[in-house]
Amino acid sequence: MTIPRYSVASLRQLATELFAAAGMEAEKAQAVAEVLVTGDMVGQRTHGMALCPQYLEQIEKGLMAKAGTPEVVRDSGAVFVWDGNYLPGPWLVSQALELAASRLAEHGVVTAVIRRSHHIACLTSLIKQATDRGLAVILASSDPAFGFIAPYGGKEPLFTPNPIAIGYPGTEQPVWIDVSTSITTVGMARQKSAADTPFAHPWLMDADGNPTNDPHVLDPGANGSLLPLGGREYGHKGFGLSLMVEMLTHGLGGFGRPDSEKRWGANVFLQLIDPDAFAGRAAFLRQMDYLTGRCHANAPIDPANPVRMPGEMAQRRIAEAQRAGLDVAPKVFDALTAAATRYGIAMPPAL
């Protein structure tokens, strides 16, 4: 079966119109649509347009705020903390990034923490906004309301995948690192569970603490969990990184697991770094370009698969999406069509 493709612009317009029809303010609708479509463009399909119907459901249930601004908890110039009041996460992070960037000339490094944001979607989509400006960025997120990963040595789910993204510019290309502190993600486990497809490796753990490749252990009531980065043998590494993210997002934000509301959301840590404030941009690029060159020149295990830098494949996918559009998985297309019908919006024509 041939899956139809759609232009990037038409999918962005569709998402914008859907969110606006659901009552989201225009600026927010555009920002969220931009991040979701970019998620598909970089290849993170579980965090692209697949999220659109889920976000609409959250709006309809009153669980994602449609309008308003974040509450400023503290602002010292180089550091600010917001309470997001469950406003759309992609918009909140984009706004925080804009404000932080405007202060870099004075401070060099600006750090933001957002508590009680809604889900922030694809982290690569967001750090791209920083590297497009020639800035380095660190972004991390955790949802204090839920648990899918047990601490190393335990079997009771506590942490979310707690993703960490780091981006920095280069002369030829930026580097985008986007990893979870678990081996795989909740979205992928749910996708495989719905398709009744096991993982290729035992990346999960059942309720008794046994490693398994069965995604159904993450189904409601099954009480299984995702294994931390490093797996059963070296999961202390993922456990440590999870603790780091919780400290940056919950500890610094002053809101977390002791007082969490049981609703889908996120606490966010964002730090923007201007290379000009340190040894200088030219020195920064000299160092990082050299490192990229050495990585590319490294003798490959398989000559057909030479070393590539993190984000390189995503950048190729962006170029391909701009040239040939994006395909939409049948289940996602059906969900988008149902939402469009509900709001009286026409689906875009396929390419």
Descriptive report:
The chain has one domain: 2-Layer Sandwich (Ribosomal Protein S8, Chain: A, domain 1), CATH 3.30.1370.60. 40% of the residues lie in helices and 15% in strands. The chain has helices at 8-21, 26-41, 52-60, 89-102, 104-107, 123-131, 186-195, 231-234, 236-251, 281-297, 312-324, 330-343, and strands at 5-6, 71-75, 79-83, 109-117, 136-142, 164-168, 175-179, 204-205, 211-212, 225-226, 266-273, 326-327. The strands form 3 sheets. It has a 7-stranded mixed β-sheet, sandwiched between helices.
Quote the beta fraction. Answer: 15-25%
Estimated helix fraction: 25-40%
* Cross-sheet strand order for the largest sheet: 2-3-4-11-5-6-7
Question: CATH H level: which superfamily?
Answer: Malate/L-lactate/L-sulpholactate dehydrogenase, NADPH binding domain
CATH topology: Ribosomal Protein S8, Chain: A, domain 1
Global outline: globular
Quantity of strands, as a count: 12
In the CATH hierarchy, what is the class?
Alpha Beta
Briefly say what this structure is.
With 351 residues, the chain is of the alpha+beta class. The chain has helices spanning 8-21, 26-41, 52-60, 89-102, 104-107, 123-131, 186-195, 231-234, 236-251, 281-297, 312-324, 330-343; strands at residues 5-6, 71-75, 79-83, 109-117, 136-142, 164-168, 175-179, 204-205, 211-212, 225-226, 266-273, 326-327. Helix 2 packs across helix 4 and helix 2 (26-41) packs across helix 6.
